[in-house]
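Hi C.,

You asked whether I'd gotten around to modeling the 133-residue construct. I have! Everything is below, sequence then structure, no commentary in between.
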Amino acid sequence: MTSTTTPPTVEPSDGPSALRVAFTLARREPLAYLIAWTTWVAFYTLPIPAGLLLKAVLDRVVEDDASPVVGLLVALAAVEIGRWLLLAFAVVQWHGCWVFWHTLLRVNMLRSLLRAPGPAAGRLPSSSGEAVS
């Protein structure tokens, strides 16, 4: 006779949702979040003007009018170089926001553990090392 065991059920936590935490973190440093968001939106929308410039270059080549092609190629190169420089800035800005958000959560957790009255053993889920990680 085999005994069957049912797997433990996981109850949803009573804490805030991930979306609410993300919104609260973005409200904490709105300018940094706005800069990061704007640079990523700009990076992903800059292929539109680059594509229009490329269309203009190819249209001029087909017409055998090569004089404005050099200027259009320079403009196309400038847009693409600017786009990749924007990517470098966006990566650095987003990394700064990411580090701040993670640091803020850890600092708030440790602050709540250290400043709350009473023994910390009752507030930790199990060992202190597991609670920190």
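If it helps when you're writing up: The mean pLDDT is 79.

Thanks,
B.
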